Amino acid sequence: MSRPLVVTALVAFAVLGLAPVVVMLARIEPHDLTAAFSQRSLALLGRTALLGGGAAAVALVIGLPFGFLVARTDVPGAGVWRVLGVLPILLPPLVVAMSWAGMSTLRGGMATTLVLGLCTFPLVALYAARAFERIDARQEEAALLAGGLRGALRAELPLVMPSALFAACFAFVLAINDFAVPDYVSSIGPKWNVYADEVFASWRSDQNTGRAVAAALPLVLLTALALWPALELRRRNLLASFASDFRRPGTLRLGAWRWPALCVVLLVLGVTALAPLGYLLYWSGGGTRGFSFEHMRAAFAYALEVGRSNLQSSLLFAAGAALVAVPIGLVLGHALERSGRAGRWLAPVALLPIAVPAILFGIGGIAFWNRPLTGAVYDSGWMAVLLFAGRFLPFVVLAFSAAVAMLDPRIEESARLAGARPARRLAWIVAPALAPAVFGAAAVVYVLSMRELDAAILVPAANSTVLFRLYNAVHFGRDDFVAALALLVAFFVIAPGLLWTFFARRRLEVLP
Amino acid sequence: MPSLTSRRVLHGALASGVLVLAGCSGAPDLIVYCSLDQTFSEPLIQRFARESGLDVRVEFDIEANKNVGLAMRIREEAAARPRCDVFWSNETAQTVSLAEDGLLQAYDSPSAADIPGEFRDPEKRWNGFAARARVFIVNTQLVDPAEIDSMWDLFEPRWKGKVAMARPLAGTTLTHMTALYPVLGEAEGRRYVETAARLAQDGSLNLATGNAHVMRLVREGQAAFGWTDTDDYNVARLEGYPVAAVYPDRNGAGTLLIPNTICITKSAPRPEAARRFVDWVLRPEIEAELASSRAAQVPLRASVARPAHVVDASGFTAMKVDWREIGRAVQARTAEFQELFLK
């Protein structure tokens, strides 16, 4: 890769992803740190770590068998369940929490842990499924001969666990940074506060932004602690890579266990995806006030009428963010993978934009972009595009570095020897070979941008997004409208993945 | 079905990029930051834009931010490049706090001449209008509203686990709890807030995510009654839920009225348009419209017509508060409440 190209991408990453964070960290004075590590805040942090660990464990316990069943076995409809299994991670966690609170009386820490585990299990399922698919057929056949299905699983579990643990680390990170779910789920009974509450409250109570940033540091440290093992697993190449003579394994026959396995899959999907969607459908039709399809039709018509321009803005910003993030991520992901020791140092830095709380990133965006020189950008829709791109670039970089790892370097070398310049090699050799990963990375940025609220709420352009409209509507109690709009959001979040799944010949590639 | 080639992907990307570029531009005649619910304020602001011929850009807050997001932005932007002309807040304490920090400019709007003095800044930096009252929303199938008449009823042992309020770290609940200190006296105010925090710890008092959530808990019978705002109560009433509003402490401290406030920022880039907008919003007609809306805001002018479900002065005792004092205290109180409620 040419040095100017990498430097350009690095500068773009520094401006979009790092500058908002650095601007805020620079405000911390040494004395601001004392309050951040008080006994009360450390107790909150301990509870938050417990929540993260619990949610990651739930995600692991559900995701690992789910990934295995839908990716490798003859469970009826496995392919469909595999696609649907992604749904819970695409739905806003608050929607899942609201449906949970409507259907169950379990509250407090246990319920919070369970809800966040259920919301994040698809991460583990996706990674586990991919890892199970990368077990070499010859190795599996040998294990099957020696010990049957149980023996094969015993042999394969150690190969799959690193990928599942990698995903569980991200489940941990998502869980500890969420404050809406704990707040909502523990609103009946003893309050179960978490550290993310403290971060948000500090911004509201303290006009000294240095102190407020310092208050976020313990959570940033906890996030970094969770990401470190993930990066180590990746660095040690333990994430289910395969050799060039790899033979894809066949479908495993479950025999009499086929139908009980289907029940397990449907139960998981029912609780995590279908129940929240059903809850929303029920409320769009009037809910407990009297359900009717006429009411539902009217709610959707009203949601489309009021939310159409917001949906358009969200689609525009999310697509724009994906377009900005993908080329930068492609160059950096390539550099990360091919640059050896330098890449090892770049990886933790690349994760910084998602390691800080969203509110800190959003205010950093104001502080960095709202200047006379860049004021026009700040005032325009570009601000939302750049903010989303910067915030979610780490996922793109990681996805491309993983995809590049699977690409034989000799292909690029041959193109270089044939006289192709670096930009040309990237555009016409690397990118086409990674087409599913290009689309997959773009889809990740698109999905996350469509769902983003906490960071975006602070910049002017975010006012026109559909999530903004949705959260505003929650307040004035039009539950049918809110439910219909939430379902429309969910549809547009899922749409690109569904289109690819139905119309493209190759599978979406976003995982290492 | 043909497979997606790299060329098609690139062409698609370029086309989408052009669309994104086309969608991101504009320079308005007036920028308004507004934390009154978008549902109620947006049609009014759009009407002003039509009548004045000005290109008005309005940026809203969301309920989850409880007005603090916009105040935070005004502070952050003021340091480098002020862009907000008018701040229309759905409450008072944050506005007063901005005024105390020198971020607002004085403007004596002729439209505000007949608004009662206690809802106007003596230095003319902000004006109050169209208030919400802090009331108990009561589920009438669970409790007879006549049984509740004091704010202290929230802590009665017989209601253990059946009462609710929002965590007082933002919004009108924060303003309300802050106001109790000067109104009840430091010791009594502290006793009220500390009792709430203690009962919340063991689940005797349910802490909701916000006032709208309190309304939902009560209307669905998960709580018998709780603190909320009149606009939230009115939404439940209109939806036909079995609820009533209690304006407590008629013979004591009274009910807190929290008005909307409107102000012009210190370095408003378009001050002339800002004044036109402030004059337009502070007219009695707007108070009347907000009273008739789902928000059921309480007009501050006695002369403004209101529907039967919106109280007038005979329906409750108004709590006497000094908004400057509350504005000055709110930040320190938030830090105190954080210690009490975030454990």
Which key phrases capture this entry?
heterodimer, A: 512 residues, mainly alpha, MetI-like fold, 2 domains, 0% strand, globular, B: 343 residues, alpha/beta, ten-stranded mixed β-sheet, 11 helices, 41% helix, 16% strand
Q: How many structural domains does the protein architecture of chain A include? A: 2
The tally of helices of chain B reads 11
Per CATH, the architecture of the largest domain in chain A is Orthogonal Bundle
Q: What is the count of helical runs of chain A?
A: 23
Helix content of chain B: 40-55%
User: How many β-strand runs of chain A?
Assistant: 0
Low-confidence stretches of chain B: 20-25
Provide the CATH superfamily of the largest domain in chain A: MetI-like
Strand content of chain B: 15-25%
Main sheet of chain A? none
The main pleated sheet of chain B reads as: 10 strands, mixed
Instruction: Output the structural class of chain A.
Output: mainly alpha
| N- and C-termini, Cα separation of chain B | 58 Å
CATH-assigned fold name of the largest domain in chain A: MetI-like fold
Into which percent range does the helicity of residues of chain A fall?
over 70%
Radius of gyration of chain B: 22 Å
Mean pLDDT of chain B: 89
List low-confidence stretches of chain A.
none
**Subunit arrangement of the protein:** heterodimer
CATH class of the largest domain in chain A: Mainly Alpha
Q: Can you describe what's shown?
A:
The complex is a heterodimer of chains A (512) and B (343). By secondary structure, chain A is mostly helical. Chain A contains 23 helices and no strands. Chain A has two domains: 1-24 and 296-512, Orthogonal Bundle (MetI-like fold); 38-242 and 251-284, MetI-like fold, CATH 1.10.3720. Chain A has helices at residues 3-25, 32-36, 39-72, 78-84, 87-90, 93-103, 108-133, 137-176, 180-185, 195-205, 209-235, 258-284, 293-338, 341-350, 352-355, 358-369, 375-379, 382-405, 409-417, 422-433, 435-451, 466-475, 479-503. In chain A, helix 3 (39-72) runs antiparallel to helix 8 (137-176) and helix 19 runs antiparallel to helix 20. The mean pLDDT of chain A is 86. By secondary structure, chain B is α/β, with parallel strands linked by helices. Chain B has helices at residues 6-22, 38-52, 68-80, 93-100, 171-184, 186-201, 211-219, 230-238, 271-281, 284-292, 323-341; strands spanning 30-34, 56-60, 86-89, 104-105, 126-139, 163-166, 205-208, 225-229, 243-246, 257-265. In chain B, strands 1, 2, 3, 4, 5, 6, 7, 8, 9 and 10 form a ten-stranded mixed β-sheet that branches. Residues 20-25 of chain B have low confidence and may be disordered. Chain B is globular, with a radius of gyration of 22 Å. Chain B contains eleven helices and ten strands. In chain B, 54% of the residues are buried.
